[in-house]
Amino acid sequence: MFDTELYQQVLGLTAPWRVAEVKLDVESTQIHVHVEHGEGGLWPCPHCQKDLACYDHAPKRTWRHLNTCQFQTLVHARIPRVECAEHGVVQVKVPWAEPHGRFTLLMERFVIDVLQACRTVKGACALIGISWDQAWHVLERAVARGLSRKEAVEISRIGVDEKAFRKGHRYMTIVSDIDRGTVDFVSDGREKASLAAYFGSRTPKQLNAIKAMAMDMWEPYVQAALEAVPLASSKIVFDRFHIMKHMTEAVDVVRRRENRSLVADGDERLKRTKYLWIASRENVPPKRRAELRELRDTDLKTARAWAIKENLRHLWSYQVEGWARRFFNGWHAWAIRSRMEPVKAVARMMEGRLDNVITYCRHRITNAVAEGLNSKIMTIKRRAGGYRNPANFKTVIYFYCGGLRLHP
Ligand SMILES: [Zn+2]
Known about the structure:
Elements: H1 4-10, E1 17-25, E2 30-37, E3 42-44, E4 51-57, E5 61-68, E6 71-77, E7 80-84, E8 88-91, H2 105-118, H3 121-128, H4 132-149, E9 157-165, E10 170-177, E11 182-188, H5 192-200, H6 204-209, E12 212-215, H7 219-228, E13 236-238, H8 240-264, H9 274-278, H10 286-296, H11 301-312, H12 321-337, H13 341-352, H14 360-363, H15 368-383, H16 390-401
Parallel strand pairs: 2-6, 9-12, 12-13
Antiparallel strand pairs: 1-2, 3-4, 4-7, 5-6, 7-8, 9-10, 10-11
């Protein structure tokens, strides 16, 4: 009733493999494709390729294939085993599936595509009609395949970022390739060893090829980079967004304190103004700009802190390090004179690390790519309902953000 020839073509089978029988089971809406091989041929050992006679057969196995006409399609076969003098009794490779796959190659490719498109394991399961375990198995194998195919490419600009896993109790270190926009490496923790593990996995040539590294002002990372990367001190660029975040937080601390003392005197000018001060000037919504203009021309401490914050942004517009340094000196003096402790703290933090702030003039990199990847990772994590196990979470990051060649 079903064309064995047709299924032979669908599965791409060539001699000695052939489709022996195709059975349609209307009740279970399944199509069973029974595959056999001809007698007497030789089979290569999967490890050394030596041609050997069939020794015996492994028990019958089943692989799920792409549906045909909305019927679940299952391929059944017994895989020959050969006895290799060197490798013992082993199963030979079959052309339609990978050694430990539960799906045919085409099905596996399809599952990978759907997983990529829906961004969630659960969603893919519902669409394809497979179990979570089956989908996960494909995903895990795809990542292992992708990682094993990875060549020692030279990455010239990397971003190092930490990611809180499970509400800040645990961290992961994520190294991204700024130019490709992919995650190159994930490791546990945010210690020196976390980043050292990345550098340890690189060849000397790859380490030499690193021209610039964007990272937060986080001493363990700095130490790891200084130890592993030649001339690291001229290549580390402290992320400007991270610095501006500190500055913005300082403005907010000033505002909260000032608001408290104003409210005590019945002055409510600073109530509900948080966003006006922390947003970058151009991001304040047009309908609130008049409000900001009015407030910032007063003698409020918050207004001064805000002006210092907005002014600091100019630091990253200089092309020449000498000019950036000169600008910073002026800004720093202003911030220190401000008599606002949170603002002074940021100025001091930057002063001690200025060399690697103004390396930005030369390298012009930020962790924005890493941050973009971060939000992608968070979305994946949220949609998947969180990954209890950090190893699984890592696998998912590689699957969605690794830029790997995943298909069999
Ligand atoms: Zn062998």
